[in-house]
Write a structure and sequence with these properties.
Layout (H helix, E strand, L loop, with lengths): L14 H22 L5 H10 L7 H8 L3 H13 L3 E6 L2 E9 L1 H21 L5 H15 L1 H17 L1
Antiparallel strand pairs: 1-2
């Protein structure tokens, strides 16, 4: 389980530490909610949430999508499969590739956890008005967008090359 208040003495000087500490706070809350709902931790829910859209993804694609190491993902999928929350089928085009899918029980677990997630977000954002929340979500989405990050790095590299 994650621990909150890890880097408090360093705030607000470092964006990376602030983002990490904010994520840690959410993970602590969501790990607790996951355990209460019979899941192992928040990673279980992240997998269920990603599979809930019914898009067929390989385990590798799922790993990249939710930013969980593929070895760790296999452990999570094994656990969820034992609980009958997901099933894995072979990919008809690639013999060794597996496609995880959410089950009806997995959808119910996902829905219950989404309610707990919403409550945790509400507690974390207590005192932050609606407009500020919208800005926060927009900024975090921009930071998290790998395509934007890749373009920024490429632009910076081109800029240095011409100097």
């Amino acid at each position: 389980m994650a621990q909150s208040d890890c880097f408090a003495p360093l705030w607000p000087a470092d964006l990376t530490l602030l983002l990490h500490a904010a994520a840690d706070r959410m993970v602590v809350e969501l790990d607790r909610a996951a355990v209460e709902l019979g899941l192992n931790d928040v990673r279980d829910w992240m997998v269920l949430a990603a599979l809930d859209d019914e898009v067929a993804r390989t385990q590798l694609e799922l790993s990249r999508m939710i930013c969980i190491d593929k070895t760790t993902l296999i452990t999570v999928l094994d656990r969820l499969e034992k609980q009958e929350l997901v099933v894995r089928a072979g990919d008809p085009t690639a013999r060794r590739v597996r496609i995880p899918r959410i089950t009806a029980a997995g959808r119910r677990a996902h829905a219950k956890f989404a309610t707990a997630r919403d409550a945790a977000e509400k507690r974390a954002l207590d005192g932050v008005d609606t407009d500020q929340r919208a800005v926060l979500f927009d900024l975090l989405a921009r930071i998290a967008d790998r395509n934007t990050a890749d373009q920024t790095v490429e632009s910076a590299a081109r800029g240095r090359a011409t100097v």
